[in-house]
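Reopening this one. Same input as before:
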Amino acid sequence: MKKYSVGVIGATGMVGQRFVTLLAGHPWFEIKVLAASARSAGKNYGSLVSGKWAMTSPIPESVRDMIVLDAQADMDRIASQVDFVFCAVNMKKEDIKALEEAYARRECPVISNNSAHRFTPDVPMIIPEINPGHAEVIASQRKRLGTKRGFIAVKSNCSIQGYVAALGALKEKFGIKSVLTCTYQAISGAGKTFERWPEMVDNLIPYIGGEEEKSQLEPLKVWGTLENGVIVPATRPVITAQCLRVPVTDGHMAAVFVSFDRKPSESEILECWKNYSGKPQALKLPSAPQQYITYFEEDDRPQTKLDRDLYGGMGISVGRLRPDTQYDYKFVCLAHNTLRGAAGGAVLLAELLCAEGYID
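Same output, byte for byte:
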């Protein structure tokens, strides 16, 4: 693979920091530009994140002295220096939409961690192992935007990564009628650490704004179909969700209850999970976990602290499969929310799009 020059828009935030750490040693991608808001522009990256660096690894030396640009005022300069950008900004939704489209119209593809364009009909929202074929809608999006190279592709919400993986491995074979999921989400999903959010210590908050709607609706777009140049969301399964913020640093756990069109045996479910892999595994993409879904036989696994870093934080952990009194089965699953769920999932999406020729 050729080396791609990339930019990180929103580089100073928690997800932006995660992008920086993942890209610093990436075999395909090289950071050429870091950008943030106007108040950060003109300063070196190390000084901007000093004191609020949230990663366990140190600030990469390759970017410590890089001067941060203004994501809006320096847009032409940024677009001219990179093959594409990753975007993880903290702005109003309409402002994010405008920003990302402006980069795309400058023939600079955007791989977005933001939610603003997730329900734009011709913007693919891709979990690479589940719906890689949705990238085909990019051709229609380019016609709308009037671009040759530029487009926007987004990753889905961090809270759905675990249960959509586990259900997606079963959906085609057995059909899924209804799903109930309760997610228990880490504080890094709010861009926080315990030092910056001390009220979360020894606490649980039973509300995360907008999260339940995303958890119920985004899987239906992921499982949707490409029709007449847009992605039409699926109408089933019916999903109901409840989302809680819990006092852990990283890792979103989900308790899942599911009913099928054709009820499988437990052994059939376990076999599907064991054998399921997707295009990232077939293409041997750098960030792809060797085993997408790992099932734990132990009654007390997966555990957040023990299992969130499985396969570099890109693997999905599942456990406690058993029959339910109201649904067919119930189980739990775990995904690392800032790796698989955020920056890592976007990097894997970018790898997929590069391998499939969309960036070129």
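So the earlier flakiness isn't reproducible anymore. For the record, The first strand starts at residue 4 and ends at 9.
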